[in-house]
Amino acid sequence: MGICRVDIHLPADSDAYDTAIRIIKAADPIDYLVLQPEQKDRRLIQVIMRDGPVQAMLDNLQSLLENRSGWRVTVADLGVTIPKLPEPKDEKKNARQQHTREELYVQVSSGAKLNRDFIVMVVLSTIVAAIGLVSDGVAAVIGAMVIAPLLGPILGFAMGAALGELALLRRGILTLLAGIGIALAVSLLLAMVLPPNWESRELMSRAEVRLDGLALAMAAGGAAALSVTRGASSALVGVMVAAALLPPGAAFGLFLGYGEWELALRAALLLCLNVAALILSALIVFRLRKIRPRTWIEQQHADRAVWLNAGLSGMFLLVSIALILLLDLGSAVELGN
């Protein structure tokens, strides 16, 4: 379980000091101390504690201090502490290890930004993916998934809904749409240069809309949300997310460029299905991990956003599954027969 240090800066004459100390003691910290900084009108309380109870303590401190001025709370992860701490006896708390809401917001928000790096990485990954699809090169397609920066927008949209943060939700969906649009435009241009290879299984399989692809997208979205809440490496789940988005997006553009409208529609359906599955599974995981706003009013707004987005995603998935089964869209596609 992780360990962190929480620094609480207060005015020296603040009437909230005693209450803040009681909140800290109630959180069962490993240790805490009160320091007198160089500024004589300030107080600094440093708290060392395990990650588990940090969120509850931060929420209580914010409720205490939100209508006052001159305060600030910072949180920093600690990699090592000596002597070694014993493992907590409460296994349930240990199992609930996750970053605080504030840490998650900063991390996810930064990954959902539409900037020059994001655009360049999408262009490069689409070029690699398109070449891999046309040449039937599995290694090239996998390489494109590794460099595709599509994890951040998905998590940004899902967390924006979970927290009722309209700005983050809007940023996530706009960045995701921009990434898919860039991939589509680049692959359309590449279709004018790369001759079609209808024998390529990597390309033609993106026109096969199967339920196992839906399962992959659901697993990828859930794994991505879980990894970010626990502070684990998101590199591998980022590849899973890219696997559900980048190849269908690139195939969609290639099929449009080659004038194969039916195949393009199939690839577009696969892409939309995967986006809905990713968002739905990420929303479910954030909900199960209790990623919610602090105040009751904000929680009501967040609940509405979660249920609205989950309902729309679920409805789209059900309609898509019905189309897959009724129209047999998962059957192998061959041209020229």
Protein model, in words:
The chain is α+β, with helices and mostly antiparallel strands. It folds into 2 domains: 3-95, Alpha-Beta Plaits; 101-327, no CATH class. The chain has 13 helices and 4 strands. A 4-stranded antiparallel beta sheet has the order 2-3-1-4, with no helix packed on it. The mean pLDDT is 84.
Secondary-structure blueprint:
Elements: E1 3-11, H1 17-26, E2 31-35, E3 42-50, H2 54-65, E4 72-78, H3 91-95, H4 101-111, H5 116-135, H6 138-147, H7 151-163, H8 166-191, H9 201-204, H10 211-230, H11 235-258, H12 261-288, H13 296-327
Antiparallel strand pairs: 1-3, 1-4, 2-3
Helix pairs in contact: 1-2, 4-7, 5-6, 5-8, 5-11, 6-11, 7-8, 7-12, 7-13, 8-11, 10-11, 10-12, 11-12, 12-13
Which key terms come to mind for this protein?
337 residues; alpha+beta; Alpha-Beta Plaits; 2 domains; 13 helices; 64% helix; 9% strand
Task: State the gist of this model.
It is built from 13 helices and four strands.
